[in-house]
Amino acid sequence: xxxxxxxxxxxxxxxxxxxxxxxxxxxxxxxxxxxxxxxxxxxxxxxxxxxxxxxxxxxxxxxxxxx
Length: 67
Prior knowledge:
Strand order of the largest sheet: 1-2-3
Shape: globular
Strand content: 15-25%
Largest sheet: 3 strands, antiparallel
Number of helices: 2
Distance between the termini: 35 Å
Radius of gyration: 12 Å
Number of domains: 1
Number of strands: 3
């Protein structure tokens, strides 16, 4: 199975939308760091590299799109 890349979009209200295939998540601007930490913890708890990729994508989006 080939993983699709993570698509990142900054919404008008400052939230970040992450999308991979049929899955998507909307993260409010004020909660970006919280959700990045949460995805890193999920990675540590179950070893799923996808969670680490989501955390990195959120942090990169915050730095790039919201600075």
